[in-house]
Amino acid sequence: MLRLVMDTAGDCPREWLDEFKIHLIPINIHFGEQTFLQGVDLDNEGFYRLVDESGTIPKTSQPTPQQFVQLYRSIADPGDTILSVHVTRKLSGTFASAELAARELADEYNVIPFDSASGTTMQGFMLREARLMERQGASVEAILERLKHIRANTQLALTLDTLDYARMSGRVKTLQAALASVLNVKPIVLLEDGVLEMKDKVRTRIRSLTYLVDFIKQRLEGRRANVAVVHARDPEAGKRLTQAVREALNCNLLITTELSIGIAANLGPGTVGIAAYPVD
Prior knowledge:
By secondary structure, this protein is of the alpha/beta class. It is 43% helix and 27% strand. The protein is built from 11 helices and 13 strands.
């Protein structure tokens, strides 16, 4: 039996969890002395409410190896294969925790940690494809080759609405974030080799959304693609961006989701973006 797991820095439509039998391991969210499990005892709106009420930005931490061990044992039977897809190891220790848990459980399960080299909806897309391939009789080896192909062709571009979160989290280069704040512009953040890099700055929100669409369109070069629009507490921007994507790109599948708070905690509300990969 193939079991599928992703951490909650990943995103997907809620119905995919049941449809493709995807299990979640929560990121830890730290507000002062309090620690919450994302999606278990703190939902997205509760997270933003705590930020508004406390005036502080939380810290996040990866699940521990023991949390992984507990989850794996709760979802699998001895001898099962567990494909565990995680946020880029260059921004989080989650993948390393999964590796430690896999070694500890080597005599019980075949645990395969997989570094998505990205995050958000790319993790959901990978696990969706893994389940569809498994249902068609594909081997685990063939599934892993497909995931590596997706990873190598992932395109991810985001624009931030506030720089406070990024500056404090350190997930985007601090000096560039500070400069952008002085100039009062909207930064464009791209995923490159598993790292978030600020690549450009534009003057207005509208221009930033246009930049995202044009950038992804250029990278895809007209190929059919699975595409996701993500937003952090900005559904209107999500709708506008989704419509622009539908008109500009050759979408095989287009979804819109809210950005996980594991990522929003580091990039801030108002962050919107596009994740995509060619299907062929």
